[in-house]
What we know:
Blueprint: E1 5-7, E2 14-20, E3 23-32, E4 37-44, E5 49-55, E6 73-79, E7 96-102
Antiparallel strand pairs: 1-7, 2-3, 3-4, 4-5, 6-7
Amino acid sequence: MADAYEIPLSAQPQQFSIALAGVTYRVTVQWRDPSPGWCIDIADAAGNPLVMGIPLVTGANLLEQYAYLGIRGGLYVQTDNDPDALPTFGNLGASSHLYFVPSS
């Protein structure tokens, strides 16, 4: 992924602000049960929800179906040594990574 940069995560629920393509967003990352997996919520800088519960899955731009939000880029998940492996509870941020790729 040329121009991609990694959004630093750790294997624990977290909330942080981040600038993506020059716009500040509030991001929440949570492990969700009963169908286990990491999910991401994105809000504007004031905390107003934009999109909630996006599963961190591999092989697709997580923001593709949300183009109407105007986030100028895509989010991609990839795991070391097996790009198609889903992030597990323990490997998020260690061997499983979230990348932002700005739009051209």
